[in-house]
Amino acid sequence: MVTLGSAMIAVPMGVAAAICLSDILPFSIRQYAKPVIEMLAAIPSVAFGFFALVVFAPLMQDHGGPMLMWAWWILVTPFLLLAVIVISDLLTTNIKDEKRRKQRQRLLMIVLGLFSIFLLFKVGSVLNGIQILTGTNALNVSIILSFMALPTIVSVSEDALQAVGRDIREGSYALGATRAETIIKTILPAASSGILAAVILGIMRALGETMVVWMASGNSSHIPEPWFNYLEAIRTLTATIAGDMGEADQVTGSARFHVLFAMGLLLLIISFISNLVSERIVVRQRKILSGQ
Amino acid sequence: MIIGTRKILDRSFTAVGIGSIVVMALALMTVVVPIVYNGIGAVFFTGTVEHRKMLYAEFKRGDSQALSSEVASSNRYRAKVYDMLTGFEAELETMSPEKKAEYQSKYSQVRTSLQALLGPLPGDPEPMLTRFKYGQTRWEKAEEKLHDLLYESKWDNSNPNVMSQEYFVSRAIGFEGTSLVKLFPYVKDNLESMLLPEFTLYWGFITDSSVDSHFFGGIWPEIQGTFFLAIGAMLFAFPLGVVAAVYFTEYARPGFLNSMLRSANSTLAGVPSIVFGMFGLAFFINTMKVSESKSVIAGALTLAIMILPTIIRAAEEAILAVPKTYKEASLSLGSTKWNTIATVILPAALPGILTGGVISLGRAAGETAPIIFTAAVSVGSAIGLADVFSSPTPALSWNIYNLASEHEAAAQLRHVQYGMVLALVTVVLLLNLSAIVLRARISKKLKC
């Protein structure tokens, strides 16, 4: 559950950051941005776990509702703005007369704009009313884990984007595409297997993380109701192993010992399979690119 | 789509990209800044006379004459407080039994807060634990305890729809009409003279052992433990890793076995760290019996296995980056293969290998999960070099977890926790910074 949550946050941000690094930023700024990302990767997981437990959890517990509301507003407003413009444009493309077209477009923009403002405020007030009962919950862990998985995703997908090569980019620009369209429609599909490999590696990091979840997830071994309720405390495989092994080892050969080792075996198998898959993807991508 | 919309989409795409990098930088700052700010508070803080008393009694540090004059001057103010307490106790005896019972519980609360603030009151038995032998050593904690003394916290459960709210009631109201009501304003006005706060620079935080489970003292055993574990791990992993990288690049022929080995290497790089810890427990301690129970050597071996794939990968890349012309020139001059590797290729690849080694050292220092079962204890003194094979050691990473989650007084020891986190983050970030600088210097050299 936390892996999924952290992936939802980390993947879009990581891919966007990688694209920015490889294509958009000038070289001089890239020299400074890369160390920042490497620093984020270097911070030990206990430091992140400590931050999640001592700073983030009380913040969520005391100001949870308003925090969610602000996050909703900050994240969604630009997208709604863009969506209003794009939808109003798409719906009026067929009208031939220029003036009428612009009138229609403005009308549509106003209507959609009012609707989106209404949506913003309604959902915002619902979120404001939510009282987060415990700061150590799945949402807390998801956010922190996404920041831990980000550097991996960014560096590996940046490599994949760089490997695509200049000729594809130049061809797309020559045909009149803007930079965004070039990236979304030609480069991302070309590098998609590399980016998929990067995402798998990042998710593997989030999956295997022990200390952050042990400290900040609440360690409550029951399935939240409903199952997608991120505001309840949960427990992961890794934290269970770390927490229970101390007692289990005293009686070597006990059932608990073997159960914990079975959990470890499961983790090992999952990481082994995902690693194999990501390696296959990278090898296949290299073959495709060099074959072309 | 008209061109205007496409331009807007393009600009917003750029904004999203730059925005995500800004968010990452902000996240880094948000995590690092509180740690640095609060961690420095473990070394630089406003300490009270209790702190100096503790330093003198436990660590034999400080000027005893200045200390005794300070204690004398603070005792002049405390004497009044003690007199008020004894006066009130006498008054209690003269009251009727119901009134006495009513005041007794409130009085014992006041007494407890005063003990937390000033240390043992005259007439109290000598406390067993060191933490109760002294009052508050830090001025900001003393102010918090003063608030505890002056106000009682109550909970308002009247509204069933919201969580209960805390509110404060002045304790002086509860003692209206008795002699103790003068205690509260007196303590409030004279706390500074009783505790004599002044700016303290406590370097001992880094060099002292901890007294009474981190209540006083420093974190040196943890720092030393982390050093032992990290350097021990490098001692095992670095030679093995470089030799393996040389094998992979120079001697391995493409085939089933070698591709399996390479797969195994890259898989090992992705395994969760807790699995390494379990492996260390089961293999090094239970099966091979490297030591009776936890020990530094078992922990170092486990950490070595964890950082081995990273070292192999970095060394491989460094060796592959050496231009082929070096190797060909050396072979053409008549040198053997092993001589070429040892005298030409490895020295040329050394900066890259060192960079990978330094990053792995940082990772080994910061990891907790492998050492939970194999090497780490919660409290202990710094072990000597000879005990490396048989005894466990406190380590920064494990003790941060332990102090923050499992310690019984975790909320009171926040400054120690922040100090430990700062120490760990400083060590790791310094190592990584030096690796980045090293790499920048190498790429400059390669460009020329």
Verbal overview:
The complex is a heterodimer of chains A (292) and B (448). Chain A has 292 residues and is mostly helical. Helix content of chain A is 80%, strand content 0%. Chain A has a single domain (2-237), classed as Orthogonal Bundle (MetI-like fold), CATH 1.10.3720. In chain A, helix 3 (45-91) packs antiparallel against helix 4 (98-128). The longest helix of chain A is centred in the N-terminal third of the chain and has 47 residues, at 45-91. Chain A starts with a helix and ends with a helix. The model of chain A has no long low-confidence stretch (mean pLDDT 78). With 448 residues, chain B is mainly alpha-helical. Chain B has 2 domains: 48-200, no CATH class; 220-447, Orthogonal Bundle (MetI-like fold), CATH 1.10.3720.10. Helix content of chain B is 69%, strand content 5%. Chain B has a two-stranded antiparallel ribbon with strand order 1-4. In chain B, strands 2-3 form a two-stranded antiparallel sheet. In chain B, strand 5 and strand 6 (216-217) form a beta hairpin. In chain B, helix 3 (64-94) runs antiparallel to helix 7 (183-195) and helix 11 (273-287) crosses helix 12 (296-321). Chain B is elongated, with a radius of gyration of 31 Å. Chains A and B meet through helix 1, helix 2, helix 3, helix 5 and helix 7 of A and helix 1, helix 10, helix 11, helix 14 and helix 16 of B.
CATH architecture of the largest domain in chain B: Orthogonal Bundle
Topology, number of strands of chain B: 6
Q: Identify the CATH class of the largest domain in chain B.
A: Mainly Alpha
Q: What's the CATH H-level homologous superfamily of the largest domain in chain B?
A: MetI-like
Q: Categorize the overall geometry of chain B.
A: elongated
Instruction: Give the integer mean of the pLDDT values of chain B.
Output: 82
Short description:
By secondary structure, chain A is mainly α. Chain A has helices at 2-24, 27-42, 45-91, 98-128, 138-162, 166-174, 179-190, 192-207, 211-216, 237-248, 255-291. In chain A, helix 1 packs parallel to helix 5, helix 1 (2-24) packs across helix 8 (192-207) and helix 10 (237-248) packs antiparallel against helix 11 (255-291).
